[in-house]
Design a protein that fits this description.
The chain has 2 helices and 6 strands; from the N terminus they run αββαββββ. By secondary structure, the protein is of the alpha+beta class. It has one domain: Nuclear Transport Factor 2, Chain: A. It has a 6-stranded mixed sheet. A hairpin with a 2-residue loop joins strand 5 and strand 6. The longest helix has 17 residues.
Length: about 130
Amino acid sequence: MDARQAIEEAHALYVRAVDDRTLEGLRSVFDTSTVFTMNDGERAVGVDDAIARLGRRLVGAPRHRHLTTNLSITVTEDRAVAHSDWYLMFPGVEGWYAQSAGTYDDELRRVGDSWIFTRRRISLAPR
C-alpha cells in the first residue's frame, strides 16, 4: 500500500469509528499526543481526550454517516498534510440527506506502513 492509500485508509477508519460508535478504533489512527479541534473550537489533546470528548458528543445523538470527498494529500518523507470535504448524512423519511458539511484539515505521520493523525481540525462549510 502506498502512502496515499494508507492515508485514505486512516480517513476511512476514522469515520467508521465515529459513525459506528466504536471510538476505541481511533487508537489505531490518532497519535497519542494528537491535537483534535472540533468545528465549535473544542480542542482535545491526546487520543484519550479525543475519545472522551467525541463519546460525550455522541451520547443521544441520532445515527449518521460521514461522506468524505475531494481528498488532497501532500506527502513529505514521513509526514503528510491532507485536506478533504465532509458531509454529515442523516436518515430521513425519503432517504438520506446532508445535515451539515465542512472540511477536515489534517497533519499525519507515518508509523510503519500506516499513517496516523497528529492534528485534525474540523471546520463547517460557510453558508
